TrEMBL record:
UniProt xrefs under PANTHER family: ARGINASE/AGMATINASE, GUANIDINO ACID HYDROLASE, MITOCHONDRIAL
GO molecular function: agmatinase activity
Alphabetized NCBIfam families for the sequence: agmatinase, PRK02190.1
Listed name of the protein: Agmatinase
Disordered: annotated span: 1-20
Pfam families with a match to the protein in the record: Arginase
PROSITE patterns (UniProt xref): ARGINASE_1, ARGINASE_2
EC nos: 3.5.3.11
Taxonomic source organism: Streptomyces ehimensis
Underlying gene: speB
């Protein structure tokens, strides 16, 4: 069914009139949600990092990405699209998650996502640590049923518990499988690498239904072949993409909490995302940017570009569905 666009989307601040570095930062200098009322794509921050196992600081990731996104321009040549003209994209601000109580934070994030998705918007969430993917997936699954998942990360994040805690940044996808909110015939990690606790990490992960495209696979087989394989795995199912910025090599993303050598380049990540542009992307997150360890915004610039590509995929699809 095609629904008419309610009005012309309001785009970013015109950077030929108002310098890019002026004023408070919203993602890509887009309007705030309260300035447009409703939106097709909501860019929302989740400043929460109580779930981390190593360096803290991802609570500042969303605002660092917003700052770094001032230089994004309105036409995306790689996808031949003007994402902010095809659909309304707006910055919905931050979800106020309790930093002292993980269970409560997880509930708050799920409820806020329910509210946004309930308006018909798709979400582009800026973390925050990877814990937040669980409540976001819960909310997405309430709307779409179990979803396909492409998870870009150095880590599996299908571990069981840390210090007895079930909700951490290393465990969201095991919880999600246990809860039946993922379509276990269409799950893949991308960019996996680095030391594990034991081989069982991999056998458990495989039993949950995940495929793995390692960082070395990307290097050996190339981005086009990898994107083809991922597209085939996902088909036309509703797809959620979760990007942990540590999927990038620390040379491309030093500003993160659990860095691992031997990762993707930012160019490889962006090209793989673009190769997924025909997938039915219902929402996405980008997590684990920890700006205190960053230099010259290397990490947050890469993150802002990845979020831009994801947003472009969503707004193209929204425009296409309106005909
Ligand atoms: N989700 C991220 N970034 N890291 C998970 C690492 C879990 C660990 O330290 O074992
Ligand atoms: Zn990770
Ligand atoms: Zn992760």
């Amino acid at each position: 069914m095609s629904t008419p666009a309610p009005r012309e989307p309001r785009g970013p601040v015109d950077s030929s009139r108002i310098p890019r570095y002026a004023g408070p930062a919203t993602f890509a200098r887009l309007p705030r949600l309260d300035e447009v009322g409703t939106t097709d794509v909501a860019v929302v921050g989740v400043p929460f990092d109580t779930g981390v196992s190593y360096r803290p600081g991802a609570r500042f990731g969303g605002n660092a990405i917003r700052e770094a996104s001032r230089l994004l321009r309105p036409y995306n040549p790689a996808q031949d699209a003007s994402p902010f003209a095809l659909a309304q994209v707006a910055d919905a601000g931050d979800i106020a998650a309790n930093p002292f109580n993980i269970d409560e934070a997880v509930e708050t994030i799920e409820a806020a996502a329910d509210d946004l998705l309930g308006t018909g918007a798709r979400m582009m969430t800026l973390g925050g640590d990877h814990t937040i993917a669980l409540p976001l997936l819960r909310s997405v699954a309430k709307k779409h049923g179990p979803v396909a998942l492409l998870h870009f990360d150095a880590h599996l994040d299908t571990w069981d518990t840390y210090f007895g805690a079930e909700y951490t940044h290393g465990t969201p996808f095991r919880r999600a499988v246990e809860e039946g909110i993922l379509d276990t015939s269409a799950l893949s990690h991308v960019g996996t690498r680095g030391p594990l606790y034991g081989k069982k990490d991999l056998t458990d992960d495989e039993k949950m239904g995940f495929g793995i495209v390692t960082s070395a696979d990307v290097m050996r087989r190339g981005v086009d072949e990898i994107a083809d394989q991922l597209r085939q795995r996902v088909g036309d199912r509703p797809l959620y993409i979760s990007i942990d910025i540590d999927v990038l090599d620390p040379a491309h993303a030093p500003g993160t909490g659990t860095p691992e050598a031997g990762g993707l380049t930012s160019r490889e990540l962006l090209e793989i995302i673009r190769g997924l542009s025909s997938c039915n992307l219902v929402s996405a997150d980008l997590v684990e940017v920890a700006p205190a360890y960053d230099h010259a915004e290397i990490t947050s610039v890469a993150a802002s570009h990845a979020a831009y590509e994801l947003t472009t995929i969503m707004s193209r699809q929204i425009a296409a569905s309106r005909g």
